[in-house]
Amino acid sequence: MNLGSAVLAIDPGQHKCGVAVVKAAGGAFEALYQGVTTIADLQRLLAELVSRFEPESIVIGNGTNSAHVARTAASATAAPVVVVDERFSTIAARKRFFEQNPPRGLRRLIPLSLQTPSRPYDDYVAVILAEEYLKSR
């Protein structure tokens, strides 16, 4: 399924990675896939996502373990691998996580700045990286 302007984005980490496939659609963005995977399972997941979505490029944040993840991505596809600056992406992703997953019950009364997300949100970082890359093209 060739989606034209879809990109596969990865927020690399030491033990896990956020992964997202994002498509630009008329000035808006649509996340077609997002999830968190282990480094050990990354190559298998990339092969599956590349086969399924045929992204035009692979976008990787320049943080922890980015060189290893870039080599893994390059071996999974012929699509160009682009390493991008990921400054402030974690802050934006945390904000978006809480917008899309607002606290419930008594947690609503606790300021978000004092709360920890209920799960790893590296996939939200990958979505932010993809959107910033697509905006900059």
Fold and architecture overview:
The protein has a single domain (6-136), classed as Nucleotidyltransferase, domain 5 (2-Layer Sandwich), CATH 3.30.420.10. The protein is α/β, with parallel strands linked by helices and 137 residues long. The chain is globular and about 50 Å long. It is built from 4 helices and 5 strands, in the order E-E-E-H-E-H-E-H-H. The chain has helices at 39-53, 66-76, 89-100, 122-136, and strands at 6-11, 16-25, 28-38, 57-61, 81-84. It has a 5-stranded mixed sheet. Helix 1 packs across helix 2 and helix 3 (89-100) crosses helix 4. The two termini are 22 Å apart.
What pattern of helices and strands is seen along the backbone?
EEEHEHEHH
Number of domains: 1
| SSE-based structural type | alpha/beta
Unreliable segments of 5+ consecutive residues: none
Total of DSSP H or I helical runs spanning 4+ residues: 4
Strand order of the largest sheet: 3-2-1-4-5
CATH T-level topology: Nucleotidyltransferase, domain 5
β-sheet strand percentage: 25-35%
Helix content: 25-40%
